[in-house]
Amino acid sequence: MADSDDWRVTISVSGQAPAGQAQLSSSLRQVEEDVRGRVGRSVAVGAGDAQIFLYAGTETAARDAERIALDVLDQHGIAAESALHRWHPIEEQWENPDVPVPQTEAERQAEHQRLEDTETAESLATGKAQWHVRVELGSHHHAVMLARTLENEGRAVVRRWKFLIVGVSNEDQARELAGQIRQEAPPDATVIAEQAGVGWPFMPS
User: Fold this and answer.
1) Predicted structure pTM score
2) Is 10 inside any structural domain?
3) Is 194 helix (H, G, I), strand (E, B) or coil?
4) Residue 48, in any domain of the structure
5) CA angle at residue 181 from 160 to 136, to 5 degrees?
6) How far apart are CA 15 and CA 27, in angstroms?
7) Using an 8 Å Cβ cutoff, are 70 and 31 in contact?
8) In whole angstroms, what is the distance from residue 53 CA to residue 192 CA?
């Protein structure tokens, strides 16, 4: 996450424009343009169907942009609600501003370890992986062979033709396993460590 995007304001339209949904969409596009012109290039502005997003590098800039956007919306007769969040570099998600962000390397390491412990505990409690390594191989044969190797190591592997999914309990384990698989898999294999969107099984280690 770039420094210029550390703070985000989400403005959600809480009602329709007087002329209805079509007019609301048109008004929001105009609001987006007006806000972009008033906040300057230091704040990034984006919009969805019923939301406007403002990205800034500091809390002060974010709150100033928030005030401007709400003022523009009011001028267009559109009611809206806003929320301010800060990017948490360890959690890798948007958090409320009162959630502390680690400032030193020791604090960052402690926060990272806390997150890893939380993921591991949730994996053990549910039996579902919080992270997994996804592998795409060049052939079905290579997928079968690699799956057998990983299963012989005691890992739970889900195989789908040329794809493998190997569940693990946390991010550190996923990145370590991805490195190991890159050494064992053919050179053309694609290996990605990522958070599990589906509750894949895993073998506790």
Assistant:
1) 0.51
2) yes
3) strand
4) yes
5) 30
6) 12
7) no
8) 30
CB within 8 A of 164, min separation 6: which ones? 133, 134, 135, 137, 143, 146, 147, 150, 157, 158
- Same domain assignment for residues 85 and 154: no
pLDDT per position as a tens digit, 44-93: 998 877 889 999 989 999 999 999 999 999 998 888 999 999 887 766 67
Minimum mean pLDDT among 22-31, 63-72, 184-193: which range? 22-31
Shared domain check, 138 and 66: no
Asked which of 78, 95, 112 is the last residue of a domain, the reply is: 95
Asked whether residue 9 falls in the same domain as residue 90, the answer is yes
Q: How far is CA 185 from CA 3, 43, 174, 190, in A?
A: 36, 44, 16, 9
Token pair of 156 as six digits: 């739970």
Claim to verify: residue 132 and residue 182 sit in the same structural domain: yes
More confident: 30 or 103: 30
Q: Which of 51, 34, 201, 16 lies closest to 126, judged by CA?
A: 201
Instruction: Report how many domains make up the chain.
Output: 2
Residue 137 lies in domain: 126-195
Sheet containing 157-160: give its strands across: 157-160, 163-168, 131-136, 190-195
Residue at 85 is within a domain: yes
Residues 6+ apart with CB under 8 A from 91: 115
Tokens coding 118 = 């939380």
Confidence class for position 103, pLDDT limits 50, 70, 90? low
User: Is residue 142 domain-shared with residue 87, that is, in the same domain?
Assistant: no
